[in-house]
Write a structure and sequence with these properties.
Largest sheet: none
Strand content: under 5%
Number of helices: 3
Distance between the termini: 108 Å
Structural class: mainly alpha
Number of strands: 0
Order of helices and strands: HHH
Radius of gyration: 37 Å
Length: 77
Amino acid sequence: MKAFFAQIPLLLKVISDFRVIATLIGFFLVIMIAGGIANYSKKAHVPKAKKGKSAPPPVQEPEESKAEAETDEDTTE
């Protein structure tokens, strides 16, 4: 345990070195930019889901078909 406590001043000097700090900041910036690009490209290719889509209106028969259906019923009686 004494050996670990003896290394603390050396660890503090390494952690506070400007090259280590600059490298960590650069690393995190690259990771964040790459993550943003990856997420953007995924969202661009996924079609958006339409919310609240209602059912299509029922199809109405033309007037001629109704008239023909009525005349067919009259002749069958």
